[in-house]
Predict the 3D structure of the following.
Amino acid sequence: MELNETNNLTSEFRENRQGQSGPASPDKKEKLSAVKVFYDVAPEREDYVRRFKIRLKNGDLYSIAYATLPLIYLSHNEVLTIRNSNLLVTIKGRNLSDLEKQMSLERLIYIKASTGTHDTGEYDCYIASIEVEENIM
């Protein structure tokens, strides 16, 4: 057996072990991951993240310490409310459950709203808007 044939077999074996049986069906369009588009998370091997950032459409940036978050509330997978003693943050969009999960695990690094005007359905999560109310107490 030639070296090239061995490499092809090894490659095929690895693909089969990973459960890949061939190209995806052209009828089924998979959604792209919203990670790195609307938000980002720390790698699993890191212990924790101390702060996360929220970038608004106007360019304003908030850096919030996880230690100050007494409430994270997800409603109907479309509205995520984050509250601490000075801020009330309301994030509206679609399929926000992973965003809430990553925040609850203290792995979220940043969040930003879409710069577009509507949800194209291209990503598995969509952040339409972020509103921040300051000095709520």
